Amino acid sequence: MAVDQEDFTYRGRLVHLVHTRQFTRRLAEDIFDVADRARRLNTSRPGSAYLKESLVGRLALLYFVQPSTRTFLSFHAAASLLGMSTAEVRSREISSEMKGESALDSVRTFAMYHDLIIIRYPEPGFSEQCARFFLDNDLRRHVINGGSGKDDHPTQALLDLYTLHREFYSRGGIDGKRILLVGDLARGRAARSLLQLLARYEGVRLDLVSPPQVKLGDDMMSLSRKAFEDVRESEHIEDFLQDADAVYMTRVQSEYDPHIEVPESAIDSYGLTPARVATLKADAVIMHPLPRRSEIPTILDRDPRSRYWDQVENGMWARVALIAHILGSDSRIMSA
Ligand code: NCD
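Predict the joint structure of the above. Result:
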């Protein structure tokens, strides 16, 4: 099987998903169609039974050795909805890595039993290393990156884009919208990843608000300057809130680089409050990959513009569709 070594595809289909940049607009939107179809199927008993026959007998391993609640459960539920069986390894401390086994030997063992390995790992690059290892050794298994270090989180980007796609579908789509990314843009892999997918759309205008200690890195900044119609930066959310079609909030990622301290006062200058949200357009949306801290107070959960709990649900369906795409059961779902 001649898999493209650059984008891990075979005849236009993803074999492995390790980088957000592997998604073209067309591919992402095809996956959204499958996600829409699957969630509709699941509203009836025969439909959900049909969905559950998609991947019966196939096994997924969730190799999640970095904290996770939502992404872990979302993949778990997505695999179950397709009828897959799942197993999990959630800590290196209780695996053979503690006996000195290399991570790649562990992964090779996982590949003996599983068709799909979903990986959340603290260091960047590990999912890609596994994907290359599988290709080099002709192991016909699949890898999905469920979040790697500070760097990339392709399935979060997919579900965030899916949320925006659904939201703006009847309002001219994502093209031309003004998107405000807020918070820890230096280390927030969710924001970094979403930005790469927004770059696939026409005329998007990007506003960035972050404390000075955690501004968007040079790599993403230069991509943004090339890809977007307009890029503005500030440390104060009030500067841009009234113009936004979507506000994407993130928390301070203090588990990385503990020497970088972001003072509470800096968080206050970007956190949402009822008074600040009052300046937002009536049809704007508020998003967050979760978990949140103080940047979105719970009182805003009742605001009709809040979409962060919908993102969680959209995430499960986007992952159903992605797994179906990678394991080749998407056309069966589309023809139901
Ligand atoms: C994000 C992550 O892990 O990067 N969360 C998630 O996957 N839903 C964002 C975060 O941890 O802040």
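The pocket of N-carbamoyl-L-aspartate is lined by residues 70-71, 147, 153, 156, 189-190, 250-251, 289-291 (CB under 6 Å).
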